[in-house]
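It is worth pausing here to work through a concrete case rather than discussing structure prediction in the abstract. The textbook approach is simple: state the sequence, then state the predicted structure, then interpret. We follow exactly that order.
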Amino acid sequence: MTRYADTLLATGEVVVRRARQHWLAVARDAIRPLAIIVVAILLLFVAGQLPAIHDLLAYASLVGVIVGLAWIGLIVWRWSEQDYLVTNRRVVKVEGIFNKHSADSSLEKINDAVLDQSAIGRIFGFGDLDILTANEDSVDRYKWLADAAGFKREMLDQKNALEMEVRSVPAPPLRAAPPLQPIALSATPSPLPRPGSTMTADEVTATLARLADLRDRGALSAEEYDTKKAELLARL
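Step two, the predicted structure:
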């Protein structure tokens, strides 16, 4: 069966470590319902000494046992639904039975992780882990986290691996400027003869044709063409 936390994973994201609170956290939370069960059992023994209210105490004892057991079952269920994940991209925290609460932090934004372990925590292997991000705010506190030291180590290893992967991606090459093409000097003589020389009608006609071709190709403007045409006609 797919767990809720697995549905939050992005494409290409892989879970490398999964954890939850230590089982001692369940024992701590179960102290009060266990106390209710103990009191209910004591009431059952007292009921045998008080015949007048035996039935009332017996019912109260039964209700107390049922409430205590249901409470413990709820605590264990809530604990089983916890998912603290380290993936190759982020750290994810999911809690809740019916109403889910999820929080995550991208590995590249994590600056450090602060681990607090008491003497009992070192013996049994749990602790409180605070994740610090770039804005120096704690994203979330992972209380009574099982194998907190291993969880922190895996998170920092994945962060380092992600940073190395980013550094190893080659930058796209800069686009080189196209080489300058040499400008070929045209061997075609200038369409106009030297100033002051006289021209025949055939020469004027041929020169006008070349000028018209230059105009059509955009090398000459219409005004320049008209000026040159006037000069040529003046040489006839």
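Step three, interpretation. The longest helix spans residues 54-80. The chain is about 45% helix and 20% strand.
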